[in-house]
Amino acid sequence: MIHKKIVYLTIALALSLVSTAQQTPAPKQQKSVLIINAKAHIGNGTVLDNSAIGFKNGKIDLVSNDKNIAVSNYETVIDAKGKEVYPGFIAPNSTLGLVEIDAVKSSDDESEIGTYNPHVRSLIAYTADSKVIETVRPNGILMAQITPRGGIISGTSSIVQLDAWHWSDAVIKENDGIHMEFPSSFKRSGSWFEPGTIEANKEYTNQIQEINTFFTNAKAYNTTPAKERNLIFEATKGLFNGEQTLFIHAGEEKQMIDAIQLAKNNGIEKIVIVGGYEAHKIGNYLKNNHIGVLLKRVHEMPENDDDDIDLPFKLAKLLTDQGVLVGLENSGSHERMGTRNLPFLAGTCVAYGLGKEQALQLITSNTAKILGIDTFCGTLEVGKDATLFISEGDALDMRTNKLTTAFIQGRSISLETHQTKLNDRYKTKFNQK
Q1: How confident is residue 8, by pLDDT bands cut at 50, 70 and 90?
Q2: How is the chain split among helix, strand and coil, in percent rounded to 5?
Q3: In the chain, N or C terminus with fewer CB closer than 10 Å?
Q4: CA angle in degrees (0–180, nearest 5) for 22-24-29
């Protein structure tokens, strides 16, 4: 009976959280907006110290450093003197909206049964009014790549903006890529508190052969007439005609090389490495093959005994110096709640060698290029979506990242969260301003 009560209370809590979810999505932009006098970080390495950023109908139509802008051309003028403007940050390889409470199975929809699931579309499981989503927007994360988990072929991801009623309203690029968890060439025993041994994965060769057989059959299905419809193979068509990217989740040097070679042997050209812990060892190989890397969360301990203690912190710098296109992701433990810390991961990369504007590119223009959405977002440029925000200070520094205003496709969105409500409530209780 006690166990049943705990289950009922947990479900009730989950329903309560969902029923009081994020703020009402903002309506379509009606009035034109001009932001003046702010320091604008364009997202491509350029900084305008005294900028004018204008947008109408959800699109940027003015980016200037000219002080003599005709403000009368815009219906709403925001004087952001002393503040900073940034393009909206992008969270790739994210499970935002797929899991609400880990302990409540009915709210967990991040993985599917089976090993090869390219036909599983994470987008239709995405909950646009997730309570967690509203917690990431106040730090500037305004877009995310919603990505499934599990199996060898986990499924298909899609990219969304984070202020919507429903997944159909949220999507900005549907079915952008298919995600593969490539097997490791080694097996590790033990746990985080009691390290074990590392030994060769004796099944590695057989596992690679199995994956190769899957892609060979999938390619044959999509290039020759089939007698019977196969939804699994059909879902991989975009990999072979260049419409989709294969995101290979791998970290070891040998693992990445084997995975890339397997993909290329099967005619897959658009490839991205996700994780990439040892990517710096094959930087030239990645650069020559035009393969970008979405680095795993840099706030981690080194994985190997002989690694530099600060290796995770300086990986972005090492890869950037080798000419590799690099972005940051935040998968792992507490990944959804930790998504809000994405800008501070970039800030850590500044402390370990990258320039501030280079670090900003890790979560804006670089990620947009890797995800194939750079034609309409990732930087503050004329013609692109007006997805941006104003901060009181440096958005990569947790001490000064304080958003005052944010826009998604020109819509002024709410930055209120459950936490801000509690903050206001208890300030009132203790008579604080």
Answers
A1: very low
A2: 35, 25, 40
A3: C
A4: 130
- Crossing angle, helix 342-351 and helix 311-321, to 10 degrees? 80
Give the C-alpha separation, 200 to 183, whole Å: 12
Q: How far is residue 431's CA from residue 147's CA, in Å, rounded to a whole number?
A: 44
Half-sphere exposure of 198 (CA within 13 A, CB side): 7
**Distant-in-sequence, close-in-space partners of 174: CB < 8 Å, separation ≥ 6:** 123, 158
Can you give the pLDDT at residue 229? 93
Q: Quick check: 85 and 389 in contact, CB under 8 A?
A: yes
Domain boundaries, the chain: 23-87+394-416, 89-377
Query: Could you read off the pLDDT of 211-252 as tens digits, one per residue?
Result: 999 999 999 999 988 889 999 999 999 999 999 999 999 999
For 102-129, how does the pLDDT look when each residue is reduced to its tens digit (9 = 90+)?
778 888 888 899 999 999 999 999 999 8
Interatomic CA distance for residues 280 and 259, integer angstroms: 16
- pTM of the model as a whole: 0.92
User: Are 431 and 176 within 8 A, CB to CB?
Assistant: no
Cβ–Cβ < 8 Å for 418, 17: no
Are 431 and 122 spatial neighbours (Cβ–Cβ below 8 Å)? no
Name the 3-class secondary structure at 335: helix
| Whole-angstrom distance, CA of residue 314 vs CA of residue 298 | 8
**Which alpha helices (H) appear in 269-390, and where do they start and end?**
283-288, 311-321, 335-338, 342-351, 356-361, 365-371
Please state the CATH superfamily assignment of the domain spanning residues 23-87+394-416 in this structure: Urease, subunit C, domain 1 (2.30.40.10)
CA distances (Å), 158 to each of 175, 246, 255, 261, 354, in order?
5, 13, 25, 25, 29
Same fold, 23-87+394-416 and 89-377: no
3-state SS, residue 97: coil
Pairwise CA distance, residues 284 & 90, whole Å? 26
pLDDT tens per residue across span 400-415:
999 999 999 999 999 9
**CATH class for the domain made up of 89-377:** alpha beta
Burial call 333-342: b when 16+ CB within 10 Å, e when fewer: eebbebbbbb
Q: Taking the CB of residue 203, how many other CB atoms lie within 10 A of it?
A: 11
Q: For the chain, what's the residue count?
A: 433
Task: Name the one residue in this structure whose structure tokens are 């990505």.
Answer: 147
Rounded distance between C-alpha atoms, residue 111 and residue 126, angstroms: 12
Q: Residue 197: how many CA atoms within 13 Å on its side-chain side?
A: 3
The pLDDT, as a whole number, for residue 195 is 67
Q: What letter would DSSP give residue 202?
A: T
